[in-house]
């Protein structure tokens, strides 16, 4: 009787072990399918985002505004305020670390926006302090023309050593 009990126990243990292994394999397959589905959803989301960008901002209306500082010996910006066609302004306040990065050649993207083809008026005011410690504003108002291609506008504070001062300039890419 004891032998039969041991054999029966062994048989039940083997069956439970086989069932556990089968369950683990099924769980592994479900886990792999779940990972595959998650990757597919992420790829679909990425494709939808790109499609949305292309529909909402086609190349014919795409524009970007950037800010840079050339050396910064004669002017240190505190803030910049930019309006294009008298619409909602683009405003930014600068920290000491950001000004240091700009002095080292960084170009800061300020905003991506939609502009139709044609002539647009840009008004920019950079507030800051000059090399003598006096508060100063650099003001610029200029027209730019946008064609069917994307327009990238860089507002740059450029040192002018001849007059020992800084100027605010626009360059287009």
Structure write-up:
This protein has helices at 2-56, 96-103; strands spanning 62-70, 75-84, 90-93, 107-114, 118-130, 135-146, 151-160, 165-172. A 4-stranded mixed beta sheet has the order 4-1-7-8. Strands 3-2-5-6 form a 4-stranded antiparallel beta sheet, with no helix packed on it. The mean pLDDT is 87. The chain is elongated. With 173 residues, it is α+β, with helices and mostly antiparallel strands. The protein has 2 domains: 1-56; 62-172, Immunoglobulin-like, CATH 2.60.40. The protein is 36% helix and 43% strand. A hairpin with a 4-residue loop joins strand 7 (151-160) and strand 8. It starts with a helix and ends with a strand.
Properties at a glance:
Immunoglobulin-like, four-stranded antiparallel sheet, alpha+beta, single chain, 173 residues, 8 strands, 2 domains, 36% helix, four-stranded mixed sheet
Principal-axes shape call: elongated
CATH class of the largest domain: Mainly Beta
Number of strands: 8
Q: What is the number of helical segments per DSSP (H or I, 4+ residues)?
A: 2
Mean pLDDT: 87
Low-pLDDT windows of residues: none
Amount of beta strand: 35-45%
Major beta sheet summary: 4 strands, mixed
- How do the strands line up in the largest sheet? 4-1-7-8
């Amino acid at each position: 009787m004891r032998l039969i009990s041991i054999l029966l126990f062994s048989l039940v243990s083997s069956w439970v072990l086989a069932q556990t292994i089968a369950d683990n394999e099924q769980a592994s397959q479900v886990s792999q399918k779940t990972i595959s589905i998650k990757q597919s959803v992420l790829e679909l989301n990425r494709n939808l985002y790109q499609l949305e960008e292309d529909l909402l901002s086609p190349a014919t209306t795409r524009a970007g505004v950037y800010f840079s500082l050339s050396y910064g010996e004669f002017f240190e910006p505190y803030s910049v305020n930019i309006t294009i066609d008298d619409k909602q302004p683009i405003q930014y306040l600068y920290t000491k670390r950001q000004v240091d990065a700009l002095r080292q050649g960084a170009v800061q993207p300020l905003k991506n926006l939609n502009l139709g083809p044609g002539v647009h008026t840009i008004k920019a005011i950079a507030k800051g302090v000059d090399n003598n410690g006096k508060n100063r504003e650099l003001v610029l108002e200029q027209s730019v023309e946008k064609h069917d291609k994307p327009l990238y506008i860089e507002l740059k504070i450029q040192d002018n050593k001849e007059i020992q001062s800084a100027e605010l300039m626009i360059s287009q890419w």
